[in-house]
Amino acid sequence: MPEIIEITDLDAEELRPYADTAETRLLDYFGSGRGIFIAESPKVIKTALGSGYTPISLLSERKYIIKCPQLIESCGNIPVYTASSDVLSELTGFKLTQGVLCAMKRKPLPSPDMILRDAERIAVLEDITNQTNIGAVFRSAAALGFDAVVLTPSCSDPLFRRSVRVSMGTVFQLPWTYLTKGSPDYVKKLRSLGFASAAMALRNDTVSIRDPRLQAEEKLAVILGTEGEGLREETINSCDYTIKIPMANGVDSLNVAAASAVAFWELTKYCDI
């Protein structure tokens, strides 16, 4: 049974994961590269549990202990720290809109080869640091039938709190990992695994996402870059296609999160999802 503990000391060491706004410090919480992350909201926590992540503790507004008894029970014999909404806001630095946070252990990341060997449609994120965009791309990839997401090393961590929340927990369901080499080497790596690569960018040789050659590719990697700067020139030059979304009214581009959803819908291999 979980142990319900009333919070009396906001500086208690066991509450540090919830109070630490520098999430990078949670990446090595136990030392030796053994990190944790924070999942927020009952739905996201349930998804993480269902995907095999191990809870360490819960932070819950008092009313949610009564409101979500099954969630608390499903976390097993872990401490559940509780207090009023005002106290939790003081501890975390923000108002908990859905009343529950859960500190969870990270899993070891798989190698790119492991998650890509059976994949047919993947999203590749290059140097994207905006956590909201990371989460939104994951949600679109999961919803629209993509098999995996891979990220360059300078991308923001998909398990940072905002990305997890925006993704609605799909970061736990969709296989993902980091690439170990920078552009353009990773495009060559993808090609060695059988993937044609399609860079989302505006150039003279850009083709529409409706181009039938794209749908015909057995394995396709859709590569997306940062807001403003977009993809690196050497990445674009290394790709098999440069692709764009047809637009009207003189609009030349969409936010990367919106663009990913449109592209994934058009380029998914299976149209009956």
From TrEMBL:
GO terms for molecular function: RNA binding; RNA methyltransferase activity. The keyword ATP-binding does not apply. InterPro entries: Alpha/beta_knot_MTases, Ribosomal_eL30-like_sf, rRNA_Methyltransferase, SpoU_MeTrfase, tRNA_m1G_MTases_N. Keywords: Methyltransferase, Transferase. Residues 122-264 form the tRNA/rRNA methyltransferase SpoU type domain. GO terms for biological process: methylation; RNA processing. Pfam families: SpoU_methylase (PF00588). This is tRNA/rRNA methyltransferase SpoU type domain-containing protein. The lineage of its organism: Bacteria, Bacillati, Bacillota, Clostridia, Eubacteriales.
